[in-house]
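Table S2 (text version). Query chain:
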Amino acid sequence: MPENGSVWQWFGFRKNPYDFQALGVNEEDRGLFVGRAKEIPRLTAPIASDYGGITVVEGRVGVGKTSFVNAVQYDEWKRKHALPSFQVLQVQRNTDSVGFVLSAFSTCIGSLELVNPHALDKDRDLKAGKAMVSQMLNSGWSFSGGFNAGFVGAQGGAGKSAAPSSPLLPALPAILQTSGKWFDAAKRVGWSKFVVPVNNLDMLDDDSAIEFLNITRDYMLSLAKKGVWWVLIAKEGFVQMVEGRAHRVSEVFTGPPVQLDPMSLDDVQRAISARINKFAARGHDDPVPREVVVWLYDLSGGEVRAIFKKLTDLIYEYHAIVPSAKTVPTKIAKSILVSEAARRLQELGLREKWISVLKKSVSNGGTRVGDFETHGFNSKPALNYVVQRLCALGLLRKGEKGREVLYIPTTDANLAFQDVDKPSLG
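Corresponding structure-token output:
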């Protein structure tokens, strides 16, 4: 490897072509985004309208929801329809609702300053909005994710206690009044709409998500009236769950959810090719054979983030073993990925019965808690406890088959129990 060079430079790339982080709101990342031609208009249509609102993008973990939202944000920004959030608002359990609103407002301030850095110099109400956020920070309030000293609009997701006892609650009328004037001023400088994605909802349990939405509903609607488009990034079936448990929330959603299914294998291959072509030096090709990508696609159920993460891990591990090589043979690639997944499973120290549940889940394509006797348990609750623990460890995920709940093995679980040859790496 060249002195001071990265692993990726050794393989002929200026940066990791398998980067599994979400694509951002910028020209280069938009050029790397592929597919979703049918889904894009379903999100652009409401954002391009003359008002704000709340809409939902649903899908399994790892199918590319955040990248999709960011690609649409970029397109609508370039069309002058709406100003994007350059960082996604992260929701956590027990997020303070008033702090969440203030954080969203701060994100909008930061976006306007990035695209129009001199806007504050021209308008008193724009200055007042930023001053209010700064004052809140100086009083000791902090947002998870932090703020940059020179950039008040960095991402938020307020921590602290649950909303009903929010220490910011007395300041809410002033926050809404000041932010309302700020959005009116933003319209005067050319931006009447702002997109605010809300991420991590798919990481909350249903009870926490419902509590958060019930509390923040009216606050989000207040800002929607001023031109904010809230894009809730959530798990598959989220809107249906909200309709059943919090109709007062679901009734304010604009249109049906945008449902993102896993990308097709062809689109995953196109995404890899786009990155290889963008980041590779002349004469360098994909260091991982297509057969490995197809294999990972099948084992992951099409989760593009899992595929890219495994390809990244593979390159680092193989380079550590064979530092002179610039391509990874198929058999060795599979052997490394299976060994790494099995090692992780071993490090978790799972009980033998839990491993048995996991292994049968891989063999059968999933587990139903109603099949507790098949797994050697005396009751549904006993098996359900194990299944929920395996879900928490990222080894199973909740899915549905018809009307039945099916717990499906994740990429790591599927990899760990693959039977592959282990060729010599010497």
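Notes on Table S2: The CA atoms of residues 8 and 15 lie 6 Å apart. The radius of gyration is 24 Å.
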